[in-house]
Amino acid sequence: MNARIKQIVDEVKDIKSFRLKPEQKLSYVAGQWMYVRLSTDLRHHFTISASPSEEFLQFTTKFRAESLYKQALWKKKEGDEVEVNGPFGSFVLDEKDTTPRLFIAGGIGITPFRSMIKYATDRQINLPITLLYSGKNTGEMAFISEFNVQSSMFSVWVIETVKEGRIDAKKIQDLVPDWRDRTWWVCGPPPMVEAMVELAQKMGVDANKLRSEEFTGY
Ligand SMILES: Cc1cc2nc3c(=O)[nH]c(=O)nc-3n(C[C@H](O)[C@H](O)[C@H](O)COP(=O)(O)OP(=O)(O)OC[C@H]3O[C@@H](n4cnc5c(N)ncnc54)[C@H](O)[C@@H]3O)c2cc1C
């Protein structure tokens, strides 16, 4: 169905969120994704970075100069239309499962976690979440200011890889002492997800406590 771009938000350098108003309401669960088609040849998957508790539908993405898709998207203006199709995906927040979570995001892989954290906060769901959010530097990482609240339910650790290196076993053990009791949720570009899944396996995390979503195309 068609969706009108209501607002384009500059999140950080080279990352924008596109807030949409679809022709009909698109019901989804926090963490799901949709297709966004700009023309016959230009279609990509995008996580819905909004939360079902919000009025608008939204996706968030990073500019890449070599990408025809991103070139076309960056030319779009408020009031233009795109086509959306969805929702899809099972990397989602199940409200009934209150097992503590460890979310590990690499760069733009923050989008499903932004949706889940916003939803859990807005609906006051009793769900302990620790977020490890890694990226080159904070100037290139979306939504950081939103996560600036530590509470008994939510804690966030931002890891700037240029200064601190990548997430490894020591960082996880130091920052998340109860990592064994949490289900692990990993999202980001494929090499990052593969590295984190391998790390989890080496640390002895059970396969049934480990979930991941790869953003193919990065
Ligand atoms: C479930 C899911 C959710 C996603 N959510 C987001 C999101 O929230 N935000 C976001 O920015 N991106 C998301 N992505 C990735 C997004 O769909 C694009 O692939 C990404 O933005 C790169 O697009 P591009 O136009 O910059 O690169 P492109 O120009 O499309 O491609 C870059 C490189 O990747 C290769 N490539 C492209 N697509 C694939 C593919 N499917 N498999 C293997 N190689 C491929 C190309 O050959 C090229 O070498 C998601 C992907 C998936 C699968």
Automatic annotation (TrEMBL):
Q: Where is the FAD-binding FR-type domain?
A: 1-94
Q: Which InterPro entries match?
A: Cbr1-like_FAD-bd_dom, Cyt_c3_hydrogenase_gsu, FAD-bd_FR_type, FNR_nucleotide-bd, MRET, OxRdtase_FAD/NAD-bd, Riboflavin_synthase-like_b-brl
Q: Which SUPFAM superfamilies does the record match to this protein? A: Ferredoxin reductase-like, C-terminal NADP-linked domain, Riboflavin synthase domain-like
* Record key words, sorted: 2Fe-2S, FAD, Flavoprotein, Iron, Iron-sulfur, Metal-binding, Oxidoreductase
For this protein, the record's Pfam families field holds: FAD_binding_6 (PF00970), NAD_binding_1 (PF00175)
Q: Name one GO molecular function term.
A: 2 iron, 2 sulfur cluster binding
**Has the keyword Transmembrane helix been applied to this entry?**
no
**According to the lineage, what is the superkingdom?**
Bacteria
What Gene Ontology biological process does one annotation of this record name?
Answer: pyrimidine nucleotide biosynthetic process
Cofactors, names only: FAD
Protein known as = FAD-binding FR-type domain-containing protein
Give the source lineage, highest ranks first: Bacteria, Candidatus Amesiibacteriota
